[in-house]
Amino acid sequence: MTAPIRFPRFFVTSPAPCPYLPGRSERKVFTELRGDSADELNEALGRIGFRRSQTVAYRPSCLDCQACVSVRVVANEFKASSSQKRTLKQNSDLIASECRPWATDEQYELLRRYLAARHPGGGMAEMDESDFADMVEHTPVSSYVIEYREPGEGNEPGKLVGACLTDVQGDGLSMIYSFYDPEIEDRAGLGNYIILDHIRRAADSGLPYVYLGYWVEGSDRMQYKVRYRPLERLSRNGWERMPDAEQKRLISAATAPRKERDGEPMPSKDGSQLEYKLAD
Predict the structure, then answer these.
(1) Residue 135 to residues 54, 75, 121, 123, 132: CA-CA distances in angstroms?
(2) Is the pTM of this model over 0.85?
(3) Quick one: which of 9, 51, 127, 202 could link to 207 by a disulfide (CB 3.0–4.6 Å)?
(4) d(CA 68, CA 222)
(5) Largest pairwise CA distance in the chain
(6) Pairing verdict, β 209-216 and 172-180
(7) Backbone phi and psi for residue 245, each to the nearest 5 degrees, phi listed first
(8) How far apart (Å, rounded) are the C-alpha atoms in residues 280 and 222?
C-alpha cells in the first residue's frame, strides 16, 4: 500500500526591510523540506518560484510588491555573446570538480574574501564557519558543490578561485549560492564564468534549464541575471520567455556605467560624452 503524500504546511514571516529595494519591506512564505519526498517537493516548489535555503523552501510573499521575479536560462538554446565568449576563453584553463556538499576551510576563506569585497555589510557578512557549514551541508535534496581551481603542480590541487552550491533537479540545475575570488585581476568575470559553466553542464546532461533565483528590476545587484539569453521568467500565467527586444534593453541598461543608469551620461577623459552600444 502506497504511503500517503504529506501536504506541506506553509508559514509566513513577519515583514522586514527589503534587501534589494530601499524603502520597501519583504515577507516570505516558507515550508520545511524533509523526508523521502524532499527532492520531489523541492522540484515541484522550484517550478512555481520557490528557492531552497538549507532545509527550507521559500518564496517572496510581499503585500504591496511583486518585484522579485523567478528567472531561468534555457540551456540548450543558449548562445554566448561576444563578451561571454571572451569570459569562457579567459577561464578555459580552470578545473571544475563536483564535490559532495561538505564545507571546507578553503571554501570558507574564499567566501570571506568574496563577501568582504562584494557585499560588505550585507546579511551574510557576519557568517562564521558554523553558519557556512550549515548552508552547505544541511541539504535534504540532491546537491553538490562545484569547485573551480587553477591548474596545480604535480599531484597538488591548484588554487581554489570559485565555488557554487548547486541543486540537481529533474528539469535543470538550481544555483543556490556562488562565490569567487574577487582579487584576481587577470580573471575578470569569474562569477559570469560559473553561470556559463552551469549552462554548459545542464545542456550536456540533457537538462533544459538553469535556475538563477530572483531577478529584481531596479536593483543593480540583480541585473547580471538578464545577460543570459534566452531567459524565461515566472508570471501569473506560468513560465514565459522574455521578449528579445526587452531583454536587449535590459542588458544595455545593466552594462551601462552607474552614472548613465541614474540618468547622468558618463563623460570621457576629454570631457565629451561617451556612447554605449550593446554588442550582441
Answers:
(1) 6, 26, 19, 14, 5
(2) yes
(3) 202
(4) 10
(5) 79
(6) parallel
(7) -65, -40
(8) 20
Residue pair 182/114 in contact (Cβ under 8 Å)? The answer is yes
Residues with Cβ within 8 Å of residue 198, at least 6 apart in sequence: 146, 164, 166, 173, 175, 210
Give the contacts of 94 (CB within 8 A, at least 6 positions apart): 148, 149, 150, 161, 162, 193
Our measurement of the distance from residue 142's CA atom to the centroid of its chain's CA atoms, rounded to an integer in Å, reads 17
Torsion sign (Cα): 257, 177, 185, 80: negative
Q: Please, where are the H alpha helices in 11-149?
A: 38-46, 82-90, 105-118, 129-137
The grid coordinates of residue 90 equal: 579567459
Beta strands in 51-108 (DSSP E): 51-53, 56-60, 68-74, 95-99
Residue-wise pLDDT tens for the chain (280 aa)?
A: 455 556 789 999 999 999 899 999 999 999 999 999 999 999 999 999 999 999 999 999 998 899 999 999 999 999 999 999 999 999 999 999 999 999 999 999 999 999 999 888 777 888 999 999 999 999 999 999 999 999 988 888 999 999 999 999 999 999 999 999 998 888 889 999 999 999 999 999 999 999 999 999 999 989 999 999 999 999 999 999 999 999 999 999 888 765 444 443 333 333 333 232 233 3
